[in-house]
Amino acid sequence: MADSNLRITVETNPSESRLSELNIKCWPKWGCSPGKYQLKFDAEETCYLLKGKVKVYTKGSSETECVEFGAGDLVIIPKGLSCTWDVSLAVDKYYKFESTASSSSSSS
Question: CATH class for domain 10-97?
Fold first, then answer.
């Protein structure tokens, strides 16, 4: 059964002010070559694609149901999502995981 409540959000061509508000250029970078990748997100991920084109098939969804995004898109992937990334153009992205772990501050 598909997790219908887990939806990928795609914001196409966010403004420069939105990107600087998120401080994207300070996020780590990640890239991958074309191919299919089975992924499970244990935390919510926000990413901004510099390059690439991806179709994401959610586990349990039909072969025709997919979310597409690419260069210039700001994407939010919900925690708990299992999916397949079908990468047609190599991806280069900035990314950030939400640390939803109980806020354990480093004061001991």
Answer: mainly beta
